[in-house]
């Protein structure tokens, strides 16, 4: 397939020059990250890795992804409110997966006690690849929906300007002008501001719960600044700070869980609340693909159900039983067709190919297999690009891209008062990496160029 940059890619000298401009543009625009060596100081920072060229994205699939985002917001919200669904869907998983079990326990505890807040804020990011495996035309297939750690809305707001500069330097001003505006930082802040307003106290603050190592602080600052501009105060706290300023006891091993419980029991508007976090598990994703599940969760929304289902790839339960036995045997025989996923977030946990086969072979007769799901492997068409990373030599790579659409919604009681698509994120990585995002150092930021 001919790409939009075929001619440009033949002129290596021009690309080298453009790469120098690109890095400076990234620094100027604020596409920044702290360094690995100093994740908690901003004295010396670098640019977040990004592609030299924007990547071609089929316009129809891009529009399809936007069009289904509000449906997905509705769906996540419906799942988070459906105690029985979560209980039934996660029953087998929590028997063998300690992490999910702990989340679930908090969920049950707060429900028993009664929820302290009736305002709910959801920020999610639905991720897709363009599958070329089955037919001649690429199809939009969902990788997963993130209801927690839906990052890079801030830096994505600044990446298109960098790619616009690069295209102009490379003699492509018309193409530069066609890059879409994108401002998820603003869209996400709008949702947070709405929740803040409904909380109903002018002295309320928005707390960003942050990790110990804060390399990605500039991404978060983009959203923070949008809130400050609306005169909403923002504070940043680590789990440890929450725990220490609370009054709960617990062993060290437990303290993160204690902090999570403490937050969950508070009157704060949580994002995500524990039920919404559970709604984002891989097991729930797999259950959604079963016949009838979407219809039950979204009664009266036949069109939304159709749009959502069109994005699903094949997903399979490994629950104990005949169906699970069968799919496990199929995956062991043809591991290259599947991805094996545990109940974790953040990249680097999935299993592919020979490793998938070995792990499945080992756990196929044990209940442990229930802690995983199987998914059809999506096969995007690779394209050549240059991945710009500090201290990496400039070289052409065969790359694949993953498109994320941000969604934001606010519910007060039973009424959805806001439901929007809030912008997009394109991440690209070299084909040799099966797994991993930008934070894991594998994927880099990109801008879609619609074709
Ligand atoms: P995580 O919660 O770790 O982000 P994901 O489901 O997003 O888990 O998977 C991580 C990465 O693995 C994705 O960004 C994508 O690159 C790759 N991946 C996941 N599922 C598939 C799939 N079905 N086909 C091809 N690649 C996949
Ligand atoms: Mg992911």
Automatic annotation (TrEMBL):
One of its GO terms (molecular function) is magnesium ion binding. PANTHER family: GLUTATHIONE SYNTHETASE. Homodimer. Substrate binds at residues 125, 220, 427. Belongs to the eukaryotic GSH synthase family. Keywords: ATP-binding, Glutathione biosynthesis, Ligase, Magnesium, Metal-binding, Nucleotide-binding. Pathway: Sulfur metabolism; glutathione biosynthesis; glutathione from L-cysteine and L-glutamate: step 2/2. It catalyses: gamma-L-glutamyl-L-cysteine + glycine + ATP = glutathione + ADP + phosphate + H(+). This is Glutathione synthetase. Its cofactor is Mg(2+). It is an enzyme of class 6 (ligase). It comes from Gallus gallus (Chicken). The keyword ATP-binding applies. Residues 204-254, 256-279 form the Glutathione synthase substrate-binding domain. The keyword Transport does not apply. Binds 1 Mg(2+) ion per subunit. Its EC number is 6.3.2.3. Mg(2+) binds at residues 144, 146, 345. InterPro entries: Glutathione_synthase, Glutathione_synthase_a-hlx, Glutathione_synthase_C_euk, Glutathione_synthase_N_euk, GSH-S_sub-bd_sf, GSH_synth_subst-bd, PreATP-grasp_dom_sf. ATP binds at residues 144, 282, 341-350, 352, 375-378, 402, 429, 435. Pfam families: GSH_synth_ATP, GSH_synthase. Gene3D superfamilies: 3.30.1490.50, 3.30.1490.80, ATP-grasp fold, B domain, Glutathione synthase, substrate-binding domain superfamily, eukaryotic, Glutathione Synthetase, Chain A, domain 3. It comes from the Eukaryota.
């Amino acid at each position: 397939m001919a790409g939009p940059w075929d001619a440009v890619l033949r002129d290596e000298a021009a690309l080298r020059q453009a790469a120098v401009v690109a890095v400076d543009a990234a620094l100027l625009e604020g596409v920044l990250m702290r360094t690995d060596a100093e994740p908690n100081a901003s004295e010396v920072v670098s640019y977040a890795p990004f592609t030299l060229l924007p990547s071609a994205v089929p316009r129809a699939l891009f529009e399809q992804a936007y069009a289904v985002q509000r449906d997905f917001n509705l769906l996540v919200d419906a799942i988070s409110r459906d105690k029985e669904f979560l209980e039934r869907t996660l029953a087998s998983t929590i028997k063998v997966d300690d992490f999910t079990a702990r989340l679930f326990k908090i969920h049950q505890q707060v429900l028993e006690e009664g929820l302290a807040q009736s305002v709910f804020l959801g920020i999610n990011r639905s991720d897709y690849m363009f599958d070329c495996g089955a037919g001649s035309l690429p199809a939009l297939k969902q990788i997963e929906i993130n209801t927690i750690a839906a990052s890079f809305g801030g830096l994505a707001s600044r990446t298109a300007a960098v790619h616009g500069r690069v295209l102009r330097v490379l003699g492509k001003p018309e193409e530069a002008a066609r890059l879409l505006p994108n401002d998820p930082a603003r869209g996400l802040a709008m949702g947070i501001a709405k929740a803040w307003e409904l909380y109903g106290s002018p002295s309320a603050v928005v707390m960003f719960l942050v990790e110990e190592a804060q390399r990605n602080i500039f991404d978060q600052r983009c959203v923070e600044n949008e809130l400050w501009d609306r005169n909403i105060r923002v504070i940043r706290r680590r789990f440890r700070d929450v725990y220490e300023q609370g009054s709960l006891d617990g062993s060290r091993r437990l303290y993160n869980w204690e902090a999570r419980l403490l937050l969950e029991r508070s009157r704060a508007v949580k994002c995500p609340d524990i039920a919404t976090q559970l709604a984002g598990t891989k097991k729930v994703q797999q259950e959604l693909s079963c016949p009838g599940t979407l219809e039950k969760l979204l009664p009266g929304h036949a069109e939304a159900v159709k749009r959502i289902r069109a994005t699903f790839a094949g997903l399979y339960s490994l629950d104990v039983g005949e169906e699970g036995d069968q799919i496990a045997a199929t995956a062991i025989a043809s591991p290259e067709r599947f991805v094996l996923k545990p109940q974790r977030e953040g990249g680097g946990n999935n299993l592919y190919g020979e490793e998938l086969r070995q792990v499945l072979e080992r756990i196929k007769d044990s209940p442990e297999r229930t802690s995983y799901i199987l998914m059809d492997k999506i096969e995007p068409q690779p394209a050549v690009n240059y991945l710009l990373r500090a201290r990496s030599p400039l070289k052409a790579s065969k790359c694949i891209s993953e498109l994320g659409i941000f969604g934001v919604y606010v519910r007060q009681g039973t009424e959805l008062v806001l439901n929007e698509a809030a912008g997009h994120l394109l991440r690209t990585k070299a084909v040799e990496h099966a797994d991993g995002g930008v934070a894991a150092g594998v994927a880099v930021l990109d801008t879609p160029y619609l074709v």
